[in-house]
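Retro notes
What went well: the complex prediction finally ran end to end.
Inputs used:
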Amino acid sequence: MHGKFDDLGRFADPSLLILTSLADGPKHGYAIMTDVAAFSGVSMEPGTLYGALSRLERRGWVRPLAAEERRRPYEITAAGQEILAGQVTTMQQIVQVARLRIAMAQGA
Amino acid sequence: MRTGRAGRLSRALVGCHPRRWRERYREEMLDVLDQHQASARTVLNLAVSVLSTHVDPAYRTEALSLPRLRRAALISAVIAAPLALILGPVGYGIWQDDHWRPAADEGMVSAAFSAHAAILVTAFGVTLDGMDMVWDVTDLSRPQRLSQFEGGQPTALSPDGRTVATVTFSGRTALWTVADPRHPAQIATLPGSPFRHFNPDLRGQAFSSDGRTLAVAYYDHVVLWDVTSPARPRLLRTLDAPATSPPGSAGLPFSPQDLAFSPDGSILASATGTDQVTLWNAADPARAYRIADIDDPGAFAQGFAFSPSGNLLSVLYSGGTVLVYSLADPARPARTATVTGLLARAKFPDGQSQPDEVLCATCIWTGEAVAFSPDGHTLTVIVNRTEMSANSGRDTIFDWPVTGSGTLGTATVTARDAADSQPFIAPSDRTVLGSPSNYHWRTWPLP
């Protein structure tokens, strides 16, 4: 996996889901939670969401936008898009190898 | 945990984050919580968030000092203590239930018959481990095992043969559906005492004859549940039966026959405390009330049997005393028969008064059962004396003819040697179940 992602520790997986959610446009906290649940089935709790968001923000991978009353949307930065693309490439390689090995095992 | 309580606790935990965190994220998180269905998982998640942000250098606004460390420790303790109190017992109970393992070589300790279906549920293993088995007893002499599950002692089976009430490893009452007897499934758990392996408070469980009410007797109270929908039991009433002796002072903690409804369900007989026998009016379970106390012969009630017409109640006490009461006026039960000394008359294997070799006090064990015959004309008590060190036992059967007024005639006494332990009398006919060990049981006809 991408080295910078490893630094996120237990927030690595939530961070990947959040970056994926923000990849199609800015969203506020609850919208991120519902979007992640919709495309991945992962039910993210508020503590995990904001733990991951604060780390992504510190790394400059997401950026807070102006608050709309109590809601504050977040958008993915160029650096965040680059990190996300790198993670996806790594995952694609894993998927490719896994499929190949499964096919070989089933063929054998 | 209720959503309302979880929501309030979650909002309180947001306020426990470090000041810099709160200034930055508090309003957003509260907005999320306004829309989020908070649960126990949310509370736990936020508690972890509080702890992790307090140790996160990015949010530590001041250098660590002794007062600050004390404050952090106090906050952690305030958060952790209630969580431990809530989650500890629950988690321990779940762990116990998950680690239930069948005993290797155990006899049958409980047998629950359905009234209107040919289903029998048995439990093997004493106190710590156990295996429950579901049987088709259309022909009791040729039982067919349908399934097995690790649920605890089945102490009651609903009259329709669809729901089993068990005592779980952690001492709680669990409800299992055996509507599909080949695939039992747990459907509900009633509150209990999760810290106890073998809950000394729990005395027995019984379904009413219409199957809509489940009574659960504890040391000093009886709880009635509406189990019309067994997966969603509803608390109907708690009946206080203040104990006259402190818990654990003495006594036999649990007997499958310690709680019984009359055939029409209007009367509930319970054994609580160390020797208290109480009759309750349960015609309307939501408004059940005490109607009478049975006088105390100075022993522990080991079983009740209502006559088929419900006009007589027989109470079997440890030590071998049997009392019969007329319930013509349930508020004033009138004793119609008293028999004592059955234990002394029940011999050990081969007719001995004492086993040849007694290795320890617990090597001598007594099992008892009491029942009226289906026609109500005979009262039967079986006393089993088992010499565990020799794995041998002897059932002594006392049969009394019963008059309509509740008096007893002369007893017929028979006996049989068997490597069984606790006897169970099948309700529909004069058949006895006994179990030597190893998940086996066998039947034999009463004389």
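What we learned: The first helix of chain B runs from residue 3 to 14.
What to try next: split runs per interface for comparison.
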